[in-house]
Design brief:
heterodimer, A: alpha/beta, Nucleotidyltransferase, domain 5, 2 domains, 6 strands, B: two-stranded antiparallel sheet, 8 strands
Chain lengths: 184, 161
């Protein structure tokens, strides 16, 4: 290797060693993206639990006088939840079941109510009675257990239901929750 | 001369910062919410957790913080010891809430007069601190009932899926 070739090789090596990726624009884009995402992010997702309160109306009742209907009521007290299912006409077949007012208790209540709905898919209303000293956090937990259809729950579609009722079946076990203790 | 050579050798390693940025962006993109309504929860108020999948579709009308009740951002009553004072009660309901809701009901009736869809005229959204007792909620609901609001959308914090 002569002197000229050696010089050329050395220059080439230096050239390759000096190449560097300019990552500053990349960092700028990342910084802007970070700022935008942090400013617009919603860290707590808000949901709603829809409930009805009783309302006195002069309109005629939905059901016929001689029709046999199932009444499902849930009583929430300071430490327990009591569920009562009773038919409006004989045989009344009244059934009562207690659950503790805990997360595990509300999960059991949910399972029980899913079974009741599965056996009687035409009845989609639950009357909720709540004692004055129960905190809203626990009431929300019970409404969740009554209303919301969880993953793994069966899809219960009423046979003679309207399109809206059939659509609600995908999200709810009992779509109608009436807070019956709100009465003058 | 030696110091000049040392200065040339100093360079900031930006790779760890890029790593942090990448992780942060991945986390933010994964937790990014696409809720149609974004809402800032009122200060001094904590919502109960829920597994509901129903999203909020309108702004709240009644806000019950630890110390006060607001209707459409207007303070109407004070909460003392977890309940409204005796002077603000009437037939078990919170009277100032009833007064405000009656005004709202009148306004709703004017707006929805002649329109077919009147379902929204009787709906209220309520944001309430999770530590309050049902007694207080009942008083507010009774006031709403007297003002002909019968459907409540109770705000909750949705648990992560």
């Amino acid at each position: 290797m002569n002197k000229k070739q050696k010089k050329k090789k050395k220059r080439k090596a230096i050239k390759y060693r000096d190449i560097e990726l300019n990552i500053m624009p990349f960092i700028d884009v990342f910084s802007l993206l970070n700022t935008f995402l942090l400013m617009s992010a919603v860290f707590i997702a808000i949901g709603v639990l829809e409930v009805q309160i009783p309302f006195l109306s002069s309109a005629p009742p939905d059901t016929k006088d001689n029709e046999r209907t199932l009444d499902i009521s849930v009583d929430v007290e300071k430490e327990k939840i009591e569920v009562t299912t009773v038919w409006s006409r004989a045989p009344e077949n009244e059934e009562k079941k207690d659950f503790p007012l805990t997360k595990a208790g509300s999960a059991e209540l949910h399972k029980f109510l899913v079974n009741v709905r599965k056996t009687n898919p035409e009845y989609d209303k639950v009357s909720l009675f709540t004692a004055d000293d129960v905190i809203w956090k626990d009431v929300a937990m019970v409404i969740d257990a009554i209303k919301t259809r969880l993953p793994g729950d069966p899809l219960i579609v009423p046979k003679n239901g309207t399109d809206a009722e059939k659509a609600m079946a995908t999200d709810f076990i009992y779509p109608k929750v009436v807070m019956s203790s709100v009465m003058l | 001369m030696a110091s000049v050579q040392n200065d040339e050798g100093v360079s900031l390693n930006l790779m760890p910062m890029l790593d942090i940025f990448s992780i942060l962006i991945t986390f933010l993109l994964m937790s990014y919410s696409t809720d149609p309504v974004s809402y800032d929860i009122s200060a001094g108020l904590e919502l109960p957790d829920s597994v509901t999948i129903t999203a909020l579709d309108e702004l709240p009308t009644i806000i019950v913080t630890k110390n006060e009740i607001m209707v459409n951002d207007k303070k109407v009553a004070t909460i003392l010891g977890g309940d409204v004072p005796e002077r603000d009660r009437s037939q078990g309901a919170v009277y100032p809430v009833f007064v405000e809701l009656e005004k709202l009901a009148e306004a709703n009736k004017r707006v929805f007069r002649g329109k077919e869809d009147k379902t929204k005229t009787s709906v209220l959204t309520m944001e309430m601190d999770q530590s309050h007792q049902f007694k207080l909620m009942k008083r507010i609901m009774l006031a709403a009932q007297q003002a002909e609001f019968v459907t409540f959308k109770l705000m909750v914090a949705r648990e992560a899926e």
